[in-house]
Amino acid sequence: MHKTIQSLKEKPPLFSEENIQQMYTALYKMMIQYYPPIANERELLEVILASTNIEFFKKRQVMIDYNQVCRNCYFAVKGLVRSIHIQDGIEKTQWFMAEQDIIIAVYSFFNQTPAEERLVALEDTICISLNFDKLEEIYLKFPVFNGVGRKLTEYYYQLAFDRTTWVTLSAKERYERLLDSPVYGRFINRVPLAALASYLGIDKATLSRIRTDINKKR
């Protein structure tokens, strides 16, 4: 995929043309990985290039807030993002996403309704963004692109289902499941202790003890 700085609506600060090429190459490879037939759709790829933007979120910056409609989906080029929701008056972690992941406030994006979650950058994060309306136009004009959407939906649905199997696991077993996961294992050590403890449904002290115990044995 080739996209010059001049073809962007606005040149992102601190990004060279080479940086931008690398970002779109990563997006291209991800789409091919999930749905190989898209490799031959040159017109589709050009439309995607013309319809997307590069966005930068600083560490701790809120990407989507409660009651805000999620207008864009984001492909994470670099960084780490946390989803938070309120349960019984307490903020709890729903998920983490990092490089090569698609980031959205799920119900808000697909239904274009106010979000019931908050998305926060845990690190400086760079994304390629695509607006909801543009995405719908691409689906209509290029039916083959629905294959990418379907495969991504299957992938993230399986991740969500996997977490439902944690009900019978101990806190230590849940943490070990994350460490050994090809998905979470690649970035779990970058997640702040409090956020990770919230995701696992335990307190920070318990997680700290579990980590110490596991590190001694590994």
From TrEMBL:
Coiled coil start-end: none
UniProt KW Transferase keyword: yes
Chain ranges of the Cyclic nucleotide-binding domain: 55-139
Protein name: cAMP-binding domain of CRP or a regulatory subunit of cAMP-dependent protein kinases
Keywords tagged on the record: Kinase, Transferase
Protein source organism: Chitinophaga niabensis
GO molecular function terms noted in the UniProt entry: kinase activity
